[in-house]
Structures are given as C-alpha cells and as structure tokens.
Amino acid sequence: MRDATEALMEIAFVIPTYNRAEDLRQLLVTVAGLEMPAGLEWEIVVVDNNSSDHTRRVAADFARQLPLRYIFERRQGASHARRRGVLETSSELVAFVDDDNLLSPAWLIEALRFFRGHPRAGAVGARVRLLWEIPPDDFVFHYRLCLAEQDHGDVTCQMPATGFTYLAGEALVVRRRALEASGWIERGTLDCRRGCELTSGGDSEMVLRIRNAGYELWYTPAMQQQHRIPRGRMTLSHLCGLHRGFGQTDTVLQGLAHHRAATPYYRLREVARSCWYLSRSSARIGAQFLRRGRTDPHERLSFYRSLGYVEGALAVLWRGYAL
Fold this sequence. Notes:
This protein is an alpha/beta fold. It has two domains: about 5-235, Alpha-Beta Complex (Spore Coat Polysaccharide Biosynthesis Protein SpsA, Chain A), CATH 3.90.550; about 240-320, no CATH class. Helix content is about 45%, strand content about 20%. It has twelve helices and nine strands. The chain has helices at about 5, 20-30, 55-65, 80-85, 105-115, 140, 175-180, 185, 200-210, 235-255, 265-290, 295-320, and strands at about 10-15, 40-50, 70, 95, 100-105, 120-130, 155-160, 170-175, 215-230. Helix 10 packs across helix 12 (about 295-320). The longest helix is centred in the last third of the chain and has 29 residues, at about 265-290. The protein is globular and about 65 Å long.
C-alpha cells in the first residue's frame, strides 16, 4: 500500500507542439537528462496540434528511450492540446512544458519536492530565462516579459491571493485535483497560439481558475528552464501581434481575477472602456505621425493592445463567459 508521499510521485509531462519538430527534439533531450528519483512513476504526452512537419517521427525516436506517448489533436490551439493531454493522463501532478523550452537537470526533482512541502498549492511556476538566438536590441529586451520570461526573485514565494496573477503556462506544474476543481477543463474560455495566430491567455485563465477554486499559486526559482527566442520573434511586428492578443483576453481575465460575472452591465462597460482606450491611443498615434511622419514604437504597441481590448470586449459582449 502506498502512502501519501509516494502517491505524489506521479507526474505527467504534457507537451503541446505545432510544426517545431527540431525544437521538440531539443526539449526531449533535456527531459531525457532529468535527474530521476527512485521509484518515480511518470510519463510524457506529446500532443501534436496539426503539425505538417516530422513531429511524429521525433516523438517515435524518443519513445524508444522514454515513457512517451504521441497523441494527435485536430482542434487547433495550445489550450485544446493541453486539455487533451490532461484527459489522456491520470497522474496527480501535470507538468505543462512548451516545445521551445529547455529544462535544467534538477527541474523534476525540485517540482516534486515543492509539492510535497506545499499541500495547498494548486500550481507552481518555474524560473524562465530567455535564450536569444541573436542579442536583442534595447527595445525588444525592454519587452522581454511579453516573450514569457518569468523571474519573481531568488526565493520561493506565494503569488497574490487577490487581483490579477500571472504564471507562465510553459513552465507550470499543477495538481490534478486543483485543475479539476477549477472548472478549466469544462469551462475554459481562452485559447493560446492557434496555429500561427498570436492568441494568448489560456494559461492565465487556468491559474486564475485554480486560485478561485481555493488553491494557492506559487513560484519557485529552484525549477529552472530556458525559453528559446528565435530572431523572428524579436521584431516590432511580432510584439504588436502579442500585444493585440493580450488585449483580446483582458476582459475575461480581469473578470476572473476580480470575480466579476459577465453580466450585461459588465459587458457593456468593458466595451465602452476599451473603445475609450483605443480612441486615446489612436489620437496619440495620429498626432505623432502628423508631427514627425512616424510613430513611436511604444505607442504602436499601446495601439495594438487597445485594439485587442475592443475585440475582446466585443467577443465577451456577444458570447459571455462562465466563472
């Protein structure tokens, strides 16, 4: 008969992937190099989200040396892929890792150690450093948090129990019962990265729902990983797309963060608020263009986020969402 500590020694890695076979290969090399506790029960689920490259072949290569299963999920989007991975597993802990990450050797041991010592924790996020393909310019480096860098300091800490809380979904381990209690599996509204679209917010929705179900959210720097940033993501146009995606999710995330149901009043107020932000941003952009014939890149990001606000608020006005 296993005791409670041994029961915690069950973890499933859920890795959504889309047309990044070689990135996936490099990630799995680091997974194969993880330090393994004796008697660990674990598995890896690679969820292929409609890839057209050789992702299946890479997964098959590593299935010879790792407890790896390959699953094909036709519905496009990282949230669909993550949800499919959760439903395909039964372990007490679920580790969400993106295909462009590289894990440190102690990553798994530190995750298991954390959950043993924090019985009320529903999710814990890792420290994420960016691994740039080329040195970024000052402008891109300034917005590195938008590229999923995560560093809340050198000490393990609990995230705020109220208001908006962010933990990167690419570096997240959750307790299954917390995820099931949150309703994210059945009621999740937001999606991430539908194909090449820069949609976002699915991971933030997940952690907010876990917190709203009564569980704690934590960060620990002991779990360390790198997030690879190719030069194609180090451009103003890519950052504009990200900011538009951030804006599109704001109404839903703020509602979850502050326990605001999508009532008719809330929906109309959010549409009005987002239109006001967009009008102010558009006015600043227009004034700059008339004065100098160009616009400040920071203002361009503000404009795209405001545009996303309007799109997201209109979507909530039309569809609503369930707390």
